[in-house]
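Kindly review these tokens for lecture notes.

. . .
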Amino acid sequence: MKHTSSFAVLIALLVALPALPAGARRPIPTAPAPASKYGDPTKLPVDKAQKLVSGVRIPGFYDPANLDRVPVVSSKSVAVMDVSTGEILWTKNADQKLYPASTTKIMTGLLLAERTDPTDVITCMNVKIRDIEASSLHIQPWEKFTSRDLLYGTMLRSANDGSVVIAEHVSGSVAKFADLMNARAAEAGATNTHFTNPNGLPDNEHYTTAHDLAFITRDALANERFRDAVKVRKRVITRTKSKDKVVASKAKKFYETFPGADGVKTGYTRAARHCFVGSATQNGRQLIGVVLGAADNASGETATVLGWAFRRFPTIIALKAGATAPPVSVGGGAQPSVRTIAAADLVTFTDATNPGSVVQTVAEPVAGLTAPIGRGQEVGRLVARVDGADRGSVPLLADEDVAVAPVIAVTRQAGGFLGSLGGIVLWAVGAGAVFLIGLACYGTATTKSARRRRNHLAPQGRGVDYGRPRQSERRDDKGSGDKRQPGDRRDHR
């Protein structure tokens, strides 16, 4: 027989928080499980407690007095991630390949948000759309939605038919969309994921891991359209062929009971069991919790692991906005470095079980930073380093003006002048060279022309014997001319 639901547990028992490290802002996590007929679960041996949770005799829990002890949950696989850094805070079988059920739609929604505009009109062209099993939006052939409304409807209602409409609109077919999903998953950092459909309906070749799903979700939450769609509990959408316009999240209890809950997606099939990817933001810090293969109430187990993580890894402000930060070196400046300030609160986190954590702020200047620099100019990043690990960063701003060093300024001016003079000289040399080449070509052409004229006249005089009469003269001598001799008969007519 199942005992009190996690919803009742979350509402009924909120325990007092232990003291947090200095500088930490106090989160409000989910409470551990209550005592039952089995006694206080935090006092039970680990093996017995795990057996009771896996058998759904008691809900998952953590021990607030002993944060070294990880949460006890029924889920086969778990991953908890800090969104800002991408650091995995805790895992349980996080690389085990499992069916993700409808948490698949996180990738489907991300691709719709990335590849369409909110006002794009999407028409269902699939005449067999009504054959797709629920959950659904009960979409009709030729029904139209804006991309914005289809995103809300599909993510909140967990619509399998809506996922197919998205796939066919974006890629033309489910198979091509699956290829796109796999490529985008790899881009997000997934290494053991293979999608075959956009909705997570059972398929032996459709799987992912808690680790991969955390990275996919992190990329999705970086998209404003996706983030806005999954952080609400209810939405009224517009559609052309149905009055079914009110869509609500299936993770209602999580949104209502966990402080700062702002996403993301439920999932369930018989093969996958209960799955949930949840996110929450407390004191400006967002965590993602992924649970796959839970025996029951996956959102409750996600609340458990997130509540533990917020307490185990409390938020601190390493440096407040506007506070003095380490200076950074400047090349070619009137001074060797520039004073800096943090552009925003530098939020990071420590491990509550390690009170001796060393928190440093490290200034990383932009590459090739040189003068002149104006006050307020971004000159690098301010990084929070906790026990040697980078955990968060904010822009680093100059807190003063830095002029160019006088010698370098003169050199630059001289260089500019010499550069201009050099340009003039090069132009003049180039022009002179062109003139000389042209002159040489002209002279060569003239010489060749004279040679051709000489060669043309010479053949006319070759072999001429100036002592011999010309041909016309020889003809006259033979009487072919007009010369007549006296007494010629032709003179007497």
